[in-house]
Each structure stands twice: as structure tokens, then as C-alpha cells.
């Protein structure tokens, strides 16, 4: 990005300011100098550099304060490179004329203003008046820090703490008025009711709906998801009968979003912001609306304080606040908003967005973060604080076992449990109310040690912080990635884990259907010992395995903890590793995902008009065409050790010839990989599955969630008078029975046929412990597959059937969603 003042006379910025009567942009050097002196004072007087960093981080980014905007950057690289103060500027980019952030592409000319800065050690500050701050209705000025090299070229340093990134984490940020956004939020009363003399601590929810925003609704945006919950709230409030697709969202009191942070961009381009012409007074840029598809976890750390623009219908981060408000204002049972944050690693692309001081070396995902750099540590916690201040009641921390630091004294990586404590100790403030959110950690240490499935106790963070927060949670053993409930003997093989859940599962997330388990399920070899009783086709088997009535009854009516369901699983929609940004390894990723075609896509689904349109355009007109290609590709990736040129040559030699673009080249292989990802992303959208939903299934599962919601005591561990066992002798089937005793009086008895052949004609109440009376029990929930005329007595139980009996409990709420 070179810059030299143009020699010709042209319309000046002052001319344009005079015509528009907008205030001129002016540096407030006194404010910048004062902030710089304040920074030095903090560095000099704070107990240590981390304490100083915590204070200074609150002033980083672009902060709107009345008519003035203050800017702060952590720029140790400028010290490393010995860049003089006079060669560092705050760059303000004001679009000339109207700009539509939602347009697919545009060439936009910006007026550029370069303002002086003040520097203190590794921090750079600036302040200015006359700037436009963005809000829901108006677009703000864009900004970055720039420095000039010896050839006169300007180089950008982007703001990792930006509040709005309409063109992603690798482009200039938008000045955004967060105070205005917070002032307009519609859930202030929700927070006001918990305001006290000390920060409020949000308790755990009763059950969680996990949602991947881009595949949750036809629109694929936060605004579209908000409208879904607005409609549900209106219908629940009016006491209307819910349709099957609405029941999928009902009965939960928490919604957890997969990460909504900006993610990686296209490795081989195009960039979403490309300067085409520039000098010291103007910049012309080619702009593309971000359109990457991603499952959410390929983050670059930079931009974590705001929202991925791909998820924004309006390009305004207010959409996340709107969703929080609709959930918080839900009739009778407000729903918590839980955000999934990823601070355990950065994709390698993060090296292009952040200075090198953020990183501690490569790992299997990309880059480790340097948690022991006090300023990195402080900035990461500040990013977390700002994100959760959008209005989340809960936080789920991805991959907590990956938060590590190198101990040079022992020459090993050690878990940074102190940092995890600092994460859960961050105080949030929304609508003037201080609070601590509910925290969940995914931590499977000693993963990735080979014996982790056996040796992990899933309690490392719980035990470390139990004295600080008795309500802190972890993902439980049946929720972690590698669970495959469609393989025969799964449930008996996991019985020892179930025993652990009974005794100590009160602080575990439970259930087997989440984004990780469903993805792993699609990667299982179909030739293994698959439970064919779940369905007649591989599609049916996979769908029922992760939306299994017996598993849900076990989870919601018997087991401790907080159940969680993944929307794509309960909708019986597809899911997988969907990321279309890869260039170098995209073909390899598709080869690894190829087996999912066998599990999730049949000939009919492939033939539907509009489905798999990109692959069809490339010559894979039928599923058979694609399946044959995907039989060869994984094998060739393995035997050639991923030599794309050799793979293309060998594919061209196959007889009879493969379908697809001819001839195969490295370029066409990469195009096929991109088409696969884009088509699968569209195929996974829940809206494609709603017409096939079984109303008996969706209604039974909603009633089950309402049962749990009205019996929150079920979260607690089993007591001495509770019972759990499997039916013996086994005789080719696994049937679990459980008796729970409510503290206030009343009992819940469940019978769940998990897998195997059918039972003989049995009376479920005969399976009660001998000391428990068989009288006065009421059949409260019957799982799908059991006729509506059954109210008790002998019954034949088959795979996936389940029953819930109660005694002495109020069950009137099960008539429908409360309103």
C-alpha cells in the first residue's frame, strides 16, 4: 500500500466538508497525550505488568466518548522494527458518498486522513473529533494504524479489539458506538431484576439448545434466528399449538451458539478489502461482502470482541443484542444466551492479523497463544469481556485443555489453570448491571494423549475451581467428541461412564448429540458393527442415533447434569466439517469427509433440484457419479502422501473415466473441494429437513424438555435411595431402568430400551425395586413407537423405546409449552 501526495489539483477534503456541512476531522492531541501519560503511570505503579495490562486493555480499540473518539493499540512490533513516532499515524477512511455494506461487491473511494499518535512503550494512542461513529442506522468511518517505511509506503496495523468488522478481521475496522447499541437494547428489565450490591451470578440452565447460526434457518443469519424465536415467543404467548419445526426450538431455557467470531478468509483470495489505488488523501478499495462458510472454530483471535460479518443480515453487530433480548424476554421461561468462545488456539492465518508477540509456536490447529505474555493475557481477557457484554448469561470455553504454556524448568507444556480461573472471574456489565456469567469448559485432558478416552475424568476444571464457583460445568464423558451411539454394545461399553454420571454428573453437560459427536459419527466406517435396528438406511440410522427417544428420556428424565441437544441433530438435518476457505489442504479435507456421503446423502436427496448444484455443474450429475469419485480420492490422497499433481494424473487414468471436470488438474481438484464444501453447507441447513419431521417425535421430545424444566432437581447427583441398573440377563438387548426421588416428595421412574432385540411382554412397573410400591404410578411420557392407547401394563419394548412414569408430581404443565 504505497502513498505519495498527488501533484495534480483535485477536489479537497475541505471542499467536500463544506458541501456536506459535516464537521472536519481533527486530531485531539491533548487527549491522546493525556492517555499516553496515563498509560505510563499505570505501567509504573501497577503491581505487575499483567495488572497494568488489565487496566490498559480497557482503553484499547476505538472508544466513542461524546464528540471524541479515542484509539488505543498494543504495538510492540513498532518497537521491534524501530519505527519512529513521526512515521506512525492513525488512518481514518471516510467513504465518499453512500456505501452499502450488504452489497456483494463495490468499488468505494475513501477520503483518507492521517492523524498523529502518541506512544508509550509498546502502546500507541490517538484521539480525534469530527468522526462518524456507526450505529444501527448509520455507517461509521473506518480506521487502522499505519506506519511509513523508508520507501514511503504505508503499512496497516489492524485493530484486534474492533467493535465492528464489516469486511472481516483482515480489513480496516468501523468506528462503532457501543454505548448507543447498549442503550437501545430491549432486555434491560431482565438484567435490572438481578441487580444487587455485588455482581449477580447466573445459575445453570435446565437444558440447552446448541445452534450453528448459518444452518439454523433459511436466512442463515442472527437476524433470521431472532425472527424464529420472535415467532415462537408470539405463538407460545398466545397459547397456540406449535408446529413440528417450532417444537425443535421450544422447551429449552438456554440457547448456545457455536462461535460467532470472525473466522479465517480464503487462503488463495479474494480478500474482502483490497486497495486498488491510494495516496495520502484518498484510497479506492474493491470491497466484497464476506461469504465464507465455516463451522465457527477456525478463528484468528483478532476481532473476537465483535461478530462475524457473515452472520449479520444488516452488517450491524446489534443483531446479537437483538437475539439476546428476544431470548431474555421469552414468555414465562426466559432463555439464557450462551456464547461459545475459542481462545485455546489461533488458525495460522492469525499470523497475518496479529503481531508475533501473541504467539508461542505451532500446534495441531495452527498456533499456540502466549498466555504468559502479560499483555497478551490481558488483551485476551478483554476480548472475552467485550464479547460477553453483548448480553450473554453463559460462556462455553472451547478446548480448555489446550490452554498451555512452556515450562522451561521441566521442559514440558503445562496447563494454564490460573488463566481458566481468570476467565470465569471476569465481571460483565450490561444495562448497568454487574454479573458473572455461568461457565462451561470443554476439557478432556489428558487429550490428545492416546489413552485419553480411558484416563480423562472430565473434572479437572471443576475440581480446580469448585471453591470459587460450585456451579462451574464441564462437558461430560458422553458429550465429548468420540461417541458413536449407533455402534452395537455402545451403551454397555459406556456403562462405567454412566455410573460416573450418576455419582458426580451434576456439573456435567450431558447428552450425546452435539456439533462434535455428530461430525465424528459421519466419519465412522459403515462396515463396522452398526446397529441396523435404528433404521433401514444409513441416513435413518445416523439420524435416529443422534435423535434417539430412549437416549433423550435417559438424559432428561434420569441422569444428572444439564442436557444439551444440537439443532441439526434434533431436526435430523445433516452436519459435518464445513469450511470453504482452504486452498492448500482443501482436497485433503474433502477426502477425509468423503465417507459422510454414505451416511448423509442418498440418491433421492442428491437428485432434488437445487441440491448440490455446484457439484452437478462440475459434471457430477448423480450421487453415483460423486460416490465413485470419492472412492478413489481418499485412497490416492493416502498413497501419494497428498501429492496433488500425482493424484490428478492417476484420476485421469481411471477406466472407465470418472465423472467430473476433464481433465483433472490441481486447479480442478481444488474447485471440486470448494464445490463440496459449499454444497454440503447448503445441504446441512435445517430448513431442508423440516418438511420430513415426525410430529410425534418432536412433540414427545418437547414434552420431555418441559418435564425437565419443571423438575430442575433432576440435575442433582443420585442419592442413596435412587436406583439405576440394566435389565438382566442381557438376552441380546440393553434396557436401562432408573428411579429418582424428588427432595420435596414424588418419584420418577424411567425405562429405556437402548439397543438390541425386543423384550418379551413385560410390565415396566415390575422392574421397580422390590421395596417400592407399584401403586399410584402415572404414565407421564411415552416415547415414539409406543401407541397412544397405551397407559400402562404389559408392553413389548424395542430399540429406542422409552417410558417415564411419575408418582406424586404435578404434571399439568405437560399439556403444552407454558404460556
From TrEMBL:
- The ranges of region (Disordered) come to 1-30
Keywords linked to the UniProt accession: Hydrolase
Question: SUPFAM superfamilies, per this entry?
Answer: (Trans)glycosidases
InterPro entries recorded: GH, GHL5
Q: Return any one Pfam family short name.
A: GHL5
Highest taxon of the lineage = Bacteria
Q: Where is the composition biased (Basic and acidic residues)?
A: 8-19
GO molecular function terms here?
hydrolase activity
**What protein is this chain from?**
Putative glycoside hydrolase 5
Please give the organism.
Salipiger profundus
Amino acid at each position: 500500500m504505497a502513498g505519495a501526495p498527488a501533484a495534480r489539483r483535485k477536489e479537497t477534503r475541505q471542499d467536500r466538508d463544506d458541501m456536506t456541512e459535516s464537521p472536519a476531522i481533527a486530531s485531539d492531541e491533548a487527549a491522546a497525550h493525556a492517555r499516553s501519560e496515563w498509560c505510563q503511570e499505570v505501567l509504573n505503579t501497577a503491581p505487575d505488568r499483567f495488572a497494568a495490562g488489565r487496566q490498559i486493555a480497557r482503553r484499547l480499540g476505538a472508544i466513542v466518548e461524546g464528540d471524541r473518539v479515542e484509539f488505543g493499540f498494543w504495538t510492540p512490533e513498532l518497537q521491534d522494527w524501530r519505527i519512529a513516532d513521526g512515521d506512525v499515524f492513525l488512518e481514518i477512511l471516510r467513504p465518499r458518498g453512500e456505501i452499502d455494506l450488504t452489497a456483494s461487491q463495490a468499488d468505494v473511494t475513501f477520503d483518507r486522513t492521517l492523524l498523529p499518535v502518541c506512544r508509550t512503550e509498546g502502546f500507541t494512542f490517538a484521539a480525534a473529533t469530527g468522526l462518524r461513529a456507526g450505529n444501527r442506522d448509520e455507517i461509521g468511518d473506518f480506521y487502522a494504524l499505519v506506519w511509513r517505511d523508508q520507501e514511503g509506503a504505508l503499512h496497516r496495523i489492524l485493530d484486534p479489539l474492533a467493535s465492528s468488522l464489516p469486511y472481516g478481521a483482515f480489513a480496516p475496522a468501523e468506528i462503532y458506538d457501543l454505548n448507543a447499541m447498549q442503550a437501545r437494547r430491549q432486555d434491560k428489565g431482565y438484567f435490572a431484576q438481578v441487580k444487587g450490591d455485588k455482581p449477580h451470578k447466573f445459575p445453570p440452565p435446565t437444558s440447552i439448545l446448541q445452534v450453528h447460526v448459518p444452518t439454523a434457518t433459511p436466512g442463515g443469519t442472527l437476524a433470521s434466528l431472532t425472527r424464529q424465536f420472535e415467532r415462537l415467543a408470539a405463538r407460545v404467548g398466545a397459547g397456540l399449538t406449535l408446529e413440528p419445526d417450532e417444537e425443535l426450538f421450544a422447551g429449552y431455557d438456554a440457547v448456545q451458539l457455536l462461535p460467532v467470531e470472525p473466522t479465517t478468509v480464503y487462503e488463495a483470495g479474494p480478500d474482502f478489502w483490497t486497495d486498488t489505488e491510494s495516496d495520502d488523501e484518498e484510497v479506492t478499495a474493491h470491497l466484497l461482502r464476506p461469504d465464507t462458510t465455516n463451522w465457527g472454530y477456525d478463528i484468528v483471535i483478532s476481532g473476537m470482541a465483535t461478530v462475524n460479518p457473515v452472520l449479520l443480515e444488516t452488517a450491524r453487530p446489534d443483531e446479537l443484542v437483538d437475539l439476546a433480548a428476544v431470548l431474555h424476554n421469552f414468555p414465562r421461561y426466559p432463555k439464557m444466551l450462551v456464547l461459545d468462545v475459542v481462545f485455546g488456539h489461533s488458525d495460522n492465518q492469525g499470523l497475518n492479523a496479529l503481531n508475533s508477540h501473541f504467539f508461542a509456536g505451532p500446534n495441531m490447529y495452527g498456533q499456540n497463544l502466549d498466555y504468559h505474555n502479560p499483555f497478551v493475557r490481558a488483551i485476551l481477557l478483554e476480548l472475552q469481556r467485550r464479547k460477553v457484554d453483548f448480553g450473554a448469561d453463559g460462556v462455553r470455553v472451547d478446548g480448555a485443555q489446550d490452554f498451555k504454556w512452556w515450562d522451561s524448568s521441566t521442559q514440558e507444556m503445562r496447563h494454564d489453570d490460573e488463566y481458566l480461573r481468570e476467565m470465569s472471574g471476569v465481571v460483565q456489565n450490561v444495562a448497568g448491571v454487574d454479573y458473572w456469567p455461568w461457565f462451561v469448559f470443554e476439557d478432556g485432558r489428558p487429550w490428545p494423549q492416546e489413552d485419553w478416552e480411558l484416563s480423562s475424568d472430565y473434572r479437572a476444571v471443576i475440581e480446580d475451581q469448585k471453591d470459587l464457583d460450585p456451579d462451574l460445568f464441564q462437558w461430560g464423558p458422553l458429550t465429548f467428541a468420540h461417541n458413536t451411539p449407533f455402534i452395537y454394545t455402545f451403551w454397555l461399553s459406556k456403562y462405567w461412564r454412566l455410573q460416573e454420571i450418576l455419582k458426580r454428573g451434576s456439573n456435567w453437560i450431558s447428552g450425546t448429540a452435539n456439533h462434535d459427536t455428530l461430525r465424528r459419527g459421519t466419519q465412522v466406517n459403515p462396515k463396522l458393527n452398526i446397529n441396523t435396528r435404528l433404521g433401514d438406511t444409513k441416513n435413518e440410522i445416523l439420524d435416529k442415533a443422534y435423535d434417539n427417544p430412549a437416549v433423550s428420556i435417559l438424559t432428561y428424565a434420569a441422569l444428572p447434569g444439564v442436557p444439551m441437544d444440537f439443532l441439526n441433530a434434533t431436526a435430523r438435518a445433516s452436519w459435518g466439517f464445513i469450511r470453504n476457505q482452504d486452498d492448500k489442504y482443501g482436497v485433503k479435507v474433502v477426502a477425509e469427509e468423503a465417507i459422510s456421503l454414505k451416511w448423509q446423502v442418498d440418491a433421492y436427496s442428491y437428485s432434488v433440484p437445487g441440491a448440490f448444484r455446484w457439484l452437478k455443474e462440475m459434471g457430477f450429475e448423480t450421487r453415483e457419479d460423486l460416490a465413485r469419485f470419492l472412492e478413489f480420492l481418499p485412497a490416492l490422497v493416502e498413497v501419494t502422501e497428498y501429492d496433488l499433481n500425482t493424484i490428478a494424473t492417476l484420476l485421469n487414468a481411471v477406466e472407465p473415466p470418472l465423472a467430473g471436470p476433464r481433465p483433472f488438474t490441481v486447479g480442478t481438484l481444488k474447485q471440486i473441494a470448494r464445490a463440496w464444501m459449499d454444497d454440503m453447507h447448503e445441504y446441512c441447513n435445517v430448513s431442508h429437513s423440516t418438511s420430513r419431521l415426525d410430529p410425534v417425535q418432536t412433540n414427545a421430545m418437547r414434552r420431555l424438555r418441559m418435564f425437565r424444566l419443571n423438575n430442575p432437581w433432576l440435575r442433582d447427583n443420585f442419592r442413596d435411595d435412587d436406583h439405576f441398573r440394566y435389565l438382566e440377563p442381557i438376552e441380546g438387548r440393553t434396557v436401562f431402568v432408573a428411579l429418582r426421588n424428588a427432595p420435596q416428595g414424588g418419584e420418577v421412574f424411567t425405562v429405556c430400551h437402548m439397543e438390541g432385540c425386543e423384550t418379551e411382554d413385560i410390565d415396566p412397573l415390575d422392574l421397580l425395586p422390590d421395596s417400592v410400591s407399584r401403586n399410584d404410578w402415572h404414565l407421564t411420557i411415552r416415547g415414539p413407537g409406543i401407541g397412544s392407547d397405551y397407559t400402562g401394563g404389559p408392553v413389548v419394548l424395542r430399540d429406542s423405546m422409552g417410558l417415564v412414569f411419575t408418582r406424586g408430581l404435578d404434571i399439568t404443565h405437560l399439556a403444552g409449552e407454558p404460556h
